[in-house]
TrEMBL record:
It comes from Roseburia zhanii. It is found in: Cell envelope. The keyword tRNA-binding does not apply. Residues 21-262 form the Periplasmic binding protein domain. It comes from the Bacteria. CDD domains: PBP1_galactofuranose_YtfQ-like (cd06309). GO terms for molecular function: carbohydrate binding. PANTHER family: D-ALLOSE-BINDING PERIPLASMIC PROTEIN-RELATED (PTHR46847), GALACTOFURANOSE-BINDING PROTEIN YTFQ (PTHR46847:SF3). This is ABC transporter substrate-binding protein.
Length: 325
């Protein structure tokens, strides 16, 4: 079978297509679907590419197998959206030995030698977390809500992924700085079903949660289902019994609708449209040029609540995009 794949790739190359093997980590969220679509729409035969897409189903072992099969097929480029940060050294060394450039997209890899990948494009996840937490700080200070009145649970993403590590770190920094109570950190694996399940059990365990920090929109929508099923109200009046939901992505339509309904107080954007960014890097490489090693995407904050119009992190001010019907 591998031989047949290699023959097919060779014939595509002789047809002058640029062959890209893309190891996508899974299909856990709306963000991920949008990201996969962006890659598919970009790397078309009309654009001169042949895309070989492998879904890792959230398992690193599957992604490693996909990369090995791309090496076997002698693709021109390997694009990797890694599920977690660590554990990539060996397979990336194999790609390097085979002379195939590897572009990392979305989450990051932690490797012993930065030369094991050509470049990376994605989000500053810790900044996203700091922005979301700073939005909460600004909101609390404008509403005169004391730090001791803020009781947070964090529904984390896939443990060990850059998106989880960065967003959890961003929150923790603010918790330490402002003195809020962080009651629990539990993973919701970036899925709606797990977000609901985790929130259900958190509500049974703690009766004074008033802020839920969800590390993506799918978890947030699941958490909202659980809060409402428990007969509680989601909203911004956290000193009046509401539970405030804060989230990340801004891709899932239901979540954007929830912002307008004040069911999600604030979303820190995570932009999934990496196809054209990866293509730009490949085009540079094709011309013998060197793309930037790390390219961070600019991102916004979305809210419908006019209390906070701008936040400042590390001296940089970010305007909040206020959504309305
Ligand atoms: O790595 C990006 C994150 O992964 C997105 O926030 C989330 O929705 C996805 O599953």
């Amino acid at each position: 079978e591998q031989e047949a794949e290699a023959t097919e790739t060779a014939s595509l190359k002789s047809d002058r297509y640029i062959v890209v093997g893309f190891s996508q980590l899974g299909a856990e969220s709306d963000w991920r679907s949008a990201n996969t679509e962006s890659m598919k729409e970009t790397f078309t035969t009309e654009n001169g590419y042949k895309l070989i897409l492998e879904d890792g189903q959230q398992k690193q072992v599957n992604q490693i197998a996909a990369i090995r099969s791309f090496i076997q097929q002698d693709v021109d480029y390997i694009v990797l959206a890694p599920v977690t940060e660590t554990g990539w050294d060996t397979v990336l060394q194999e790609a390097k030995d085979a002379g195939i450039p590897v572009i990392i997209v979305d989450r990051m890899v932690e490797v012993s030698d930065e030369d094991l990948f050509t470049c990376w494009v994605g989000s500053d996840f810790e900044l996203e977390g700091r922005k979301a937490a700073e939005w909460l700080n600004q909101y609390a200070s404008q509403k005169n809500i004391a730090a001791e009145e803020i009781h947070i649970v964090n529904i984390q993403g896939t443990i060990g992924s850059s998106a989880q590590i960065g967003r959890s770190r961003g929150l923790l920094k603010a918790v330490n700085k402002y003195g809020w109570e962080l009651m629990a950190e539990v993973t919701g694996d970036f899925t709606q079903a797990k977000g609901r399940e985790v929130m259900e059990s958190l509500l049974k365990k703690y009766d004074n949660i008033n802020v839920v920090y969800c590390e993506n929109d799918n978890e947030a929508c699941g958490a909202i289902e659980a809060i409402e099923a428990a007969g509680k109200k989601v909203g911004s009046n956290i000193t009046d019994g509401d539970i405030m939901v804060i989230s990340f992505d801004g891709v899932k339509q239901q979540a954007m609708d929830y912002v307008i309904e004040d069911k999600i107080a604030c979303i820190a954007e995570c932009n999934p449209l990496h196809g054209p960014r990866v293509k730009a890097a490949i085009e540079l490489l094709e011309k013998g040029k060197t793309p930037d090693k790390l390219s961070y995407v600019d991102e916004e904050l979305f809210s419908a609540n006019e209390t906070v119009k701008a936040i400042t992190v590390d001296g940089i001010t970010y305007l909040v995009t206020i959504l309305s019907k």
